[in-house]
Specification:
Chain lengths: 350, 324
């Protein structure tokens, strides 16, 4: 690298607005277990199983689900931080890791913010070194990388003169999360994956960071994948929502359709599990009993059938595929598939 | 007049180390009646967990300086010896924590841990204690309880572990249950199950409950009364309906406004600027004044007293009217 760049520019849009920014096709990740005699007979954790979804340019796609549903594995697969068992990720029409889009180029365009703001910063680098690190790796001169870091600090609402030379341990959780956001933006990415970015923050700080994320999205023309277990936060942030259960998509669609007319019983239960915020309308019955099952030996057929109030024998035999539901979303439930054999399924037109 | 279950007056807790003294709790006073549930709401560092631990004398003894009055079920907690405390804990007051994995002992089975508690406090024989353990697991709705008695904590899911911890806490039928963010680490569908379980157990066993949380939704589900804590003080206290619908103190208003709930889509969230004060020094006036949009002269010289516009609902703010 002889000529150091003086500025990093956001890479141009290739396929136009109609082409999804990110397409995930048949993405599967199984983790083999190393127990069992000589490694034989050991099971696999089916962390993510045959995942398909698109992320449209300029939108925020929310991903919700409980622990073990595969939402974090999904984010790591999309970031190419681990290799999928099968399946591929296509970014703006180009296969990630292929000849057109090598990983280094791809990672310039996709960045990530993690939940643990402290663990994701190098404790021995100052804030401006941390933020300027990636631009330097991608060919920016050190001086320009530092200047970029200071611009970004201002953009995330931290005074550069006050914070640039500090170390991560000198900052509060909210400030550190702002640093992580600034660092994610340092390469001018087009897609930012936010993996539980506000879960570890206090409520008043959470609101500040959510406002900031909305501002930055407009300012830098970003697309977000927003992963959270907090349904209220996902509703506030997202245009479309993807609900995951035990490694599969349960339901996907616009935030209006899903929150107003959930088609999958799991989505409905998840929404009904939110504390009511109204002391006069307290919940009386839990919508679901028990914990999510173990992803090592997930239930057969529909993985939700063991906890579902509408389960019928057909549910344990047939794997439901995503199918259009009345409010315009898609749901993987036999009750929305005509002729599926479930008693509540719509009748097939004669 | 009979004494309330919990009687706290001007509780102060300081943590002293060589480098600094942290004033974690700066004059907390409240009463809790039997069968009542109080929710202490606050952000990290507000002193809510320290207050809770003071009710059970669980703060580290050497570094903690306590003053004020703390009486639980007629016992004076501040002056009680460690030996006396060991008797009070379990039978009078008991506590559940956020992380069941760290609160349970990993090398003993669930059944053994429950049996140990009842043998120590109620002097039951081993077989009677085992029978009691089974009863308790059924009480907290652990499926196939008999088999789960022989399980180690790591063999249980998060929700079951939390239920096992509740079973241990209830094993000696305490009059007061303290809960320190017991549902924060749980998934949404499990959290609501645990909240409903705690509410049912409280009614059935007639316990008083003090619940510490940062989640308004949790308070709305479980509390009779809510106290909002800031910088080591209660700054507002009132019945849950009044507090959630008409918060008086600007901090409580900010906290409610900053909580994301449905119906806010497309609107900007209200935030509280700045950060809580450093508690190495006790704030002179109202501790929230530096972040408050309505700050005035009267806020600064001394901490505002509680002012109560309606019975039972009061806040430490000079702007709140005092009912005659």
């Amino acid at each position: 690298m002889t000529d150091a760049l003086t500025e990093l520019k956001q890479l141009p849009d290739i396929g136009g607005p109609a082409q999804p920014l990110l397409t995930v096709r048949g993405l599967t990740k199984h983790f083999p277990l190393k127990t069992g005699f000589l490694g034989r007979g050991a099971g696999v954790v089916q962390a993510v199983d045959d995942l398909n979804f698109d992320v449209i340019k300029g939108e925020t796609l929310g991903i919700v689900g409980e622990s073990g549903c595969g939402k974090s594995t999904t984010s790591r697969l999309v970031m190419a931080l681990m290799a999928p068992t099968t399946g591929e990720v296509v970014f703006d029409g180009q296969v990630v890791g292929g000849r057109e889009l090598p990983l280094k180029e791809y990672r310039r365009q996709v960045q990530m913010v993690f939940q643990d703001s402290y663990a994701s910063l190098n404790p021995r680098l100052t804030i401006e070194e941390s933020i300027g690190f990636a631009p330097e790796v991608h060919g920016l001169a050190r001086k320009d990388a530092r200047a970029r870091a200071r611009d970004l600090l201002a953009a995330v609402g931290l005074n550069p003169d006050q914070f640039a030379r500090r170390y991560p341990h000198e900052l509060s959780g909210g400030q550190r999360q702002r640093i992580n956001i600034a660092r994610a933006l340092a390469l001018r990415p087009r897609l930012v994956i936010l993996d539980e970015p506000v879960s570890a923050l206090d409520k008043s700080v959470e609101a500040q960071v959510l406002n900031l994320l909305q501002d930055l999205k407009a300012q830098f023309g970003l697309t977000y994948i927003f992963i959270s277990h907090d349904l209220n936060v996902v509703q506030y942030m997202s245009d479309r929502v993807l609900v995951m259960y035990l490694g599969r998509v349960a339901e996907v669609g616009s935030v209006e359709a899903i929150y107003a007319a959930a088609a999958h019983p799991y989505t409905a239960a998840l929404l009904a599990s939110r504390p009511s915020m109204d002391p006069d309308r307290r919940r009386t019955e839990p919508p679901l009993v028990g914990d999510p099952p173990n992803p090592i030996n997930p239930p057969s057929g529909c993985r939700f059938h063991t906890r579902c109030a509408f389960a019928e024998p057909v549910c344990s035999a047939t794997v439901p595929l995503l199918h259009p539901a009345p409010a315009g979303q898609q749901a993987a439930c036999l009750m929305v598939v005509p002729g599926s054999g479930h008693s509540q399924a719509p009748k097939v037109a004669a | 007049m009979t004494e309330p279950l919990v009687h706290v007056r001007d509780l102060q807790v300081r943590f002293v180390s060589r480098d600094a003294t942290v004033h974690a709790v700066n004059g907390v006073s409240f009463d809790l009646a039997e069968r009542e549930s109080l929710c202490i709401l606050g952000e990290s560092g507000s002193g809510k967990s320290v207050t809770l631990r003071a009710l059970m004398a669980l703060n580290p003894p050497r570094r903690t300086k306590l003053s004020g009055t703390v009486r639980v079920g007629g016992h004076d907690i501040i002056t009680a010896s460690e030996r006396k405390m060991a008797d009070i804990r379990g039978s009078t007051v008991s506590m559940i924590f956020q992380e069941p994995m760290t609160a349970l002992d990993p090398v003993f089975t669930i059944g053994r841990q429950i049996a140990e508690t009842v043998m120590r406090h109620e002097g039951l024989s081993r077989s009677a204690a085992d029978a009691r353990a089974l009863e308790l697991l059924e009480l907290v709705q652990i499926p196939s309880a008999k088999r789960r008695l022989a399980a180690y904590p790591h063999e249980l899911s998060g929700g079951l572990r939390q239920r096992a911890m509740i079973a241990i806490a209830l094993s000696c039928r305490p009059k007061l249950l303290l809960a320190d963010e017991p549902t924060t680490a749980l998934d949404a569908t499990v959290q609501i199950q645990i909240l409903l379980l705690l509410r049912r157990l409280q009614e059935e066993m007639g316990m008083g409950v003090i619940f510490v949380t940062h989640d308004l939704g949790v308070a709305g589900e479980i509390a009779d009364r809510v106290a909002v804590m800031y910088a080591g003080k209660f700054i507002e206290e009132g019945p849950v309906r009044d507090l959630m619908r008409r918060p008086l103190h600007p901090y409580a208003q900010g906290l409610l406004g900053a909580t994301v709930h449905s119906g806010l889509r497309g609107e900007r969230l209200t935030t509280i600027p700045g950060a809580p004060p450093n508690l190495e020094r006790v704030p002179q006036g109202c501790a929230f004044a530096p972040r408050c949009a309505y700050v005035e002269e009267a806020c600064l010289p001394k901490v505002p007293d509680f002012r109560s516009p309606t019975p039972g609902h009061a806040a430490r703010c000079v702007r709140v009217p005092q009912a005659a």
